[in-house]
Design goal:
The protein is an alpha/beta fold. It is about 35% helix and about 10% strand. The strands form 3 sheets. An 8-stranded mixed sheet has the order 3-4-7-8-9-10-11-12, with helices on both faces. It has a two-stranded antiparallel sheet with strand order 1-2. Strands 5-6 form a two-stranded parallel sheet. The longest helix has 23 residues, at about 390-415.
Amino acid sequence: MALKPVRLGRLSAPRSHYLSKLPVRSFATAAPEPSAIEPKSSRRKTTFSDQLNSGPSFSSFVSSSDTPLPASEALELRTALVGPEGKKREITRLPEWLKTPIPDNSNYKKIKNDLRGLNLHTVCEEARCPNISDCWGGSDKSAATATIMLMGDTCTRGCRFCSVKTSRAPQPLDPHEPEHTAEALSRWGLGYVVLTSVDRDDLTDGGAAHFAETIMKIKQKAPGMLVEALTGDYAGDLAMVEKVALSGLDVYAHNVETVEELTPMVRDRRATFRQSLSVLDQAKKSKEDLITKTSIMLGLGETEEQLWETLKGTATSYFSFFGESQHSFTELRKVNVDVVTFGQYMRPTKRHMKVHEYVTPATFELWRQRALDLGFLYCASGPLVRSSYKAGEAFIENVLKSRASKQQTAVAEGPPTASENIST
């Protein structure tokens, strides 16, 4: 049955009567008055929301611009209870000296966009490095540093400290990667670049030829750029180490990561401390004036005695001036590492090793002084220091100063006289 339209009649009350019944609209700038009774949410609380609300806040992970804390408070480790009621557990909060600013810089954004456009990877992102803001966003392009990760983003090994993806059969190598990498780096105009790679035990040469080709192409496009290669151990194949060492790079780096006693628990079973020493040894033998470098993480449970032995096993022969045994002399002469860095181990996820200790900045400074006393050419040591952290500044400021000092000494002494030449 069709409905008949209803015709409204004239309003029986005056117009002002109806206008008075309408709600009054306030100005846009007026703040609404708070309600006396807060509305109750019909949504039931979940375990996830309980854990989220009781856990650390966003500010716990970001350094602030407020007045710095006094030393006694800044070095104090703070704890907190997290979890739902009845199942709370105590955790140690991230110390103040390990908090870093959020990356927000024009250089940082440009480098990130270029990486995505050329399908390149960096260990800065894959390993969740806390220094990405400082390294990518240097004061100018020449001061910025970047660590390109070659041969994909998937490793064939599974170290307990590393957050890089793992697989027994990663994707095949990109044949265009060496050219793309060289093009990107020459475009950025960086003064110093670090190349590293995932381990590729699925390849016959471990990717050494790919690594060497990338270095050669970079030197062709940007001859003045300093190149550091942070390589794997190539499963102990020293011929592959030599191939990379002779490719034109300036610094050969390979990390021992930790002391020998902890290596089986920290690194993949295929990586050994002695094998890493042989890599550094072969790199130095391949090219005598090549700078060699290694890195050690602190906070994994190592002892002071173990660290001393590790340094003695990688120090230069200058350490012989301190009167060590002949056994130490033999080992030191074989390895002859120039640069060492110390940094705090930070647990990437709950699947990785726990942090045994948060080492204080004062302790890092102590080990820096000890390393220099042992004869290392340079040592970077600090909670946020990584193998390639501020690599440009560290290398240029220290190595070049050392070389300039030697040149000034030679000029001051002058060339040998004729009588000196005859006597010698």
